[in-house]
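Narrative of accomplishments. A recurring question from our advisory board has been how the design workflow behaves on a single, concrete structure rather than in aggregate. To address it, we present the structure tokens for one chain from the evaluation set, followed by the sequence designed for it. No filtering or post-editing was applied between the two.
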């Protein structure tokens, strides 16, 4: 069975866009792949400066994925920071990458273009990500298009490693990106839903709050009687992803006229409630028991580490960093 692995950066409370665009499709992969899903807390540290927020978001993310149906006995769910081997691999990979390759990184270049002074963590971000992936002999990485450049770099450095240290024998598995076919999830303003745009629909907000946000989705200002175009409407696009049958009915009614945006939004609200209501209850329960959440993450990390150790062993001996032979080590101690 092939391995699918992806990382989730714990920088915000997951929203509906994360659920429809990433969580739901990634969970569907668990049927066909051996799955590794980890919380990239050290990646978050490139921007988060609030320790409580970081620790909180790690658990928010874990509880969200578990509530959405992740089965921790099937899928390895762990915190990136619990598998310290990733740093060892990260260093080794960084010694094979040209600085120019990182200077071309989108995130780094964007930060420079905005006049920011990016930290070294942001600069090295793609190297740690490559290590995240290569440490587990990953075959496929489900990611959004924005991560393609990172995947290219990962493939590149894996190939270079195999070429330089393995005479092209595959010591590291060269992974493929699995670009999600999930359609774009629009936010309340019709643009791609994202935390930074402030257009997101919360995933597990109380029903009342959720309804309020849904009712605030931007639409055209046509009156109740007028026929309306469902194409390009965020309300209909969201409904399509939650309940295609309802979306067909609502689109027909909108086209016919005598049916307002408020009615369509009510349908959307109900569809969200129907899919996410039961998940919200599970989420609340999971999130309240931090000891249990941490135990699940630690168990995942233990299992992940045993795989990581094997890879790092292979890598160390390939590059010539091996443990000292036992006799030499003891000799040294005796002569001191
Ligand atoms: N960079 C990814 C993001 O921002 C998160 C991530 C970190 C990741 N390590 C990864 C994704 C490894 C896939 C594989 O979304």
């Amino acid at each position: 069975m092939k391995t699918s692995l992806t990382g989730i950066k714990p920088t915000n409370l997951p929203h509906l866009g994360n659920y429809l665009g990433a969580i739901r499709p990634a969970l569907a992969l668990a049927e066909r792949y051996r799955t590794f899903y980890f919380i990239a807390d050290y990646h978050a540290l490139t921007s988060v400066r609030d320790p409580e927020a970081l620790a909180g978001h790690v658990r928010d993310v874990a509880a969200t994925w578990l509530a959405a149906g992740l089965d921790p006995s099937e899928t390895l769910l762990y915190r990136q920071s619990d598998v310290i081997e990733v740093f060892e691999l990260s260093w080794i990979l960084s010694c094979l990458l040209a600085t120019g390759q990182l200077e071309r990184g989108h995130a780094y270049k964007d930060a420079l273009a905005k006049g920011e002074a990016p930290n070294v963590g942001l600069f090295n971000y793609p190297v740690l990500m490559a290590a995240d992936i290569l440490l587990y002999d990953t075959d496929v990485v489900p990611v959004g298009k924005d991560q393609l450049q990172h995947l290219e770099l990962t493939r590149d450095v894996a190939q270079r490693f195999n070429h330089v240290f393995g005479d092209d024998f595959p010591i590291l598995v060269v992974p493929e990106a699995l670009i999600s076919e999930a359609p774009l999830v629009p936010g309340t303003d019709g643009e791609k839903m994202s935390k930074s745009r402030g257009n997101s629909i919360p995933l597990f907000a109380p029903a009342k709050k959720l309804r309020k946000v849904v009712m605030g989705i931007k639409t055209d200002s046509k009156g109740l009687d007028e026929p309306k175009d469902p194409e390009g409407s965020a309300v209909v696009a969201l409904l399509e992803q939650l309940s295609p049958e309802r979306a067909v009915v609502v689109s027909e009614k909108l086209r016919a006229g005598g049916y307002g945006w408020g009615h369509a939004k009510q349908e959307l609200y109900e569809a969200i409630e129907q899919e996410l209501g039961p998940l919200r209850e599970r989420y609340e329960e999971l999130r309240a028991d931090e000891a249990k959440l941490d135990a699940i993450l630690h168990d995942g990390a233990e299992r992940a580490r045993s795989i990581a150790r094997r890879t790092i062993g292979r890598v160390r001996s390939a590059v010539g960093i091996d443990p000292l032979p036992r006799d030499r080590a003891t000799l040294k101690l005796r002569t001191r």
